[in-house]
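Quick one, T. Sequence first:
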Amino acid sequence: MQVLWAPWRMAYIGGPQAAGCIFCDARDSTERRARLVLRQAPAVVVFNRFPYTSGHLMVAPREHCGDLAALSPAGFQTLTAVLHDTIRLLGQALHPDGLNVGMNVGAAAGAGVKDHVHWHIVPRWHGDTNFMPMLADVRVLPEHLEATFDRLAPIFDAA
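C-alpha cells:
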C-alpha cells in the first residue's frame, strides 16, 4: 500500500479555529502571509489557504456582512464589479481553461466562513481533476501557494 501525505489538511481539519474573521483580518493586514491580492474600497481579494486548485481566490466585501441580501444594491453592484475584475485578472495571469465561481451563504449551505459573504473563484484546467480526491481525500496542486501569489500580485497591483 502506498501512503499519500497531505499534512497541510490537518491544520484545516483539526486545527484551532482562529478568532475573528479571515476577511476582516486580511483587510486590515499589511503582511504577505495574509495573502491579500487586492484591497479596494469596497472589497478584498484573498487566496484560499486550503485551495481546490492553484489560484483559488475569494472575493469579499470589506464590510463584515454575513447576509448577501443585507448589502445595499450599490454595494452589491460594486462588489460584483470587483468579482468581474478578479476573473479577468486571474485569466490574464494563469490562463485557465475554465472557472468555477460560486458562493455558499450560511452554514447550512456549506459556508466555511458563515459570517462574511464571499465568492470563490476556482481556476480549472483540462485534466486537473484526477483520481486523488476520490481515493484519498487529497488534492494535487501543480504550484505552491506562494509561487501563485508571486505570479498574481504584480498583475493585481498593476490593475
